[in-house]
Design a protein that fits this description.
38% of the residues lie in helices and 13% in strands. It is of the alpha/beta class. It is globular. Helix 14 links the parallel strand 13 and strand 14. The strands form 5 sheets. Strands 1-2-3-4-5-7-13-14 form an 8-stranded parallel barrel, surrounded by 5 helices. Strands 6-8 form a two-stranded parallel sheet.
């Protein structure tokens, strides 16, 4: 415990993604996105990685939860009012690319899609809630996958640039905080989510992963350039998935493996986007992946752009830590946020097997701050759990409160360590569809949504016990966590 105060301008809030809560998947001219054809279930990514997968839907066989989400598209005023009641200083959400450019490659945007975000942003500002917008959050228009092969195709740089130009032009005078690509580094393990790559279109060729990353780095720098030319005070960050990574023991072999895992999983994408150049270990990292730097298609002009327009801050998700052990084959393993690892005997786990490690968040904040000397923003953190409402739809989610309290204490400790932390936006501040499994049963929110895994229910919103608790946390600027 420390007596350190959170900064007066600390951005307390919550986080969501368009594809997981909006629903209305074909309303007002919206095109199909990649999540729209992802079936529900813990095997959803495995299904998509079948070599015969052709990006089509089979509604006789599967449920497609992203079609409905929690119908935020028609409930956003009610939802924002609830966020305001909690006292949110900011709200992190994303703009669905296929609402603005339904196929992704049009030259003119969809006016109805822009109108929705006009109203959403204005609703936030009405309550003095700062929008924090992720430009691309696992929402690639399906046409860009089927026609162009996803982010391995350099043409997507231009399509993204046009998308970024439209939204930044339209909203730069209302929105200060932006991020370019959500969990960009998650493609190290599951490129379908952020790059639109599955086995059928080249995910097994690691060259394609690194080419897609390069293209995204260029696209990200183009967005930073656009934003800063519109307003030099805009804050445009990257966003990475971060799992603090430990060696299982003091064996130097495991220590080296942990270092290399950190480079590959936690640091590579941020190193390029924050520092503005490829790190010195790039050649050896690619070699371990069976890729030569000369295999990639890049130009000096692109490298110069990346160097000139790095991001302003590091946004990151933190749910769990990871353990590396490479000296034996019979390790107990655990699940995780797209990545798992060896079981850590010192930690407990969530209902979905994610290991709970608040100290790992303090370490993550210190590691990122020490490495980059730029502000850091915890834009995702939370506990996915099976909530059991009583007869009055009330959820006494003390387990969630305990999880969040411990992680907020870890942030306070990191601030005491000297880390410049911008804010904290717990994930799924209102229940939504899980990205990894497509379930509603895996709930994160302060607000319960009456909806089941089949998308059935009243869609009424109910405050959980954690709602009042988080309201108190924000009202006291983190002083009262009881």
């Amino acid at each position: 415990m420390t007596t350190t105060k959170f900064p007066e301008n600390f951005l307390w809030g919550g986080a969501t993604a368009a594809n997981q809560l909006e629903g209305a998947y074909q309303a007002d001219g919206k095109g199909l996105s990649l999540p729209d054809i992802m079936p529900q279930g813990r095997q959803r990514i495995e299904i998509m990685n079948d070599p015969q997968f052709d990006f089509s839907m089979d509604e006789s066989k599967y449920v497609y939860p992203n079609h409905v989400g929690i119908d935020h598209y028609h409930h956003f005023k009610e939802d924002i009012a609830l966020f305001a009641e909690m006292g949110f200083k900011c709200y992190r959400f994303s703009i669905a690319w296929s609402r603005i450019f339904p196929q992704g490659d049009e030259t003119e945007p969809n006016a109805a899609g822009l109108k929705f975000y006009d109203e959403l942003i204005d609703e936030c500002l009405k309550y003095k809630i700062e929008p924090v917008i992720t430009i691309s959050h696992y929402e690639l228009p399906l046409n860009l996958v089927k026609t162009y092969g996803g982010w391995k195709n350099k043409k997507l740089i231009g399509f993204f640039e046009r998308f970024a130009q439209v939204v930044l032009n339209r909203y730069h005078d209302k929105v200060k905080y932006w991020m370019t690509f959500n969990e960009i580094n998650s493609a190290a393990h599951f490129p379908v989510m952020s790059q639109g790559l599955v086995v059928a279109n080249g995910a097994n060729n690691r060259k394609n992963i690194y080419q897609a990353w390069h293209n995204q780095f260029v696209a990200s720098s183009k967005a930073v350039k656009i934003g800063h030319e519109l307003d030099p005070n805009l804050q445009i960050g990257c966003m990475i998935l971060y799992a603090t990574t430990y060696s299982y023991d003091a064996n130097p072999v495991n220590q080296l493996a942990a270092l290399q895992a950190n480079q590959a999983n936690n640091f590579f994408c941020a190193d390029v986007q924050v520092r503005g150049h490829y790190p010195a270990y790039t050649k050896s990292l690619l070699a371990r992946e069976g890729v030569a730097l000369s295999d990639l298609d890049y130009t000096q002009e692109e490298l110069d752009l990346i160097a000139k327009y790095p991001v302003d801050y590091i946004g990151f998700s933190y749910y769990m830590s990871s353990v590396v052990e490479v000296t034996k084959d019979d390790n107990d393993t655990v699940a995780g946020n797209l990545i798992g690892g060896v079981k850590n005997p010192f930690l407990k786990a969530s209902d979905w097997g994610w290991q709970i490690d608040p100290t790992g968040l303090r370490i993550a904040l210190n590691e990122l701050s020490d490495r980059y000397q730029k502000p850091v923003f915890v834009v995702e953190n939370g506990l996915g759990a099976v909530d059991e409402p009583d007869a009055n739809h009330y959820v006494a989610d003390d387990y969630r409160i305990d999880y969040l309290r411990e992680h907020i204490e870890a942030i306070r400790s990191a601030i005491d360590d000297g880390v410049d932390v911008m804010g904290y936006t717990p994930w799924g501040c209102i229940d939504l569809v899980s990205a990894s499994t497509g379930e509603m049963a895996k709930r994160y929110g302060f607000i319960y949504v009456d909806e089941d895994n089949a998308g059935q229910g009243t869609f009424k919103r109910y405050k959980k016990k954690s709602f009042d608790w988080y309201q108190q946390v924000i009202a006291t600027n983190g002083d009262n966590l009881d």
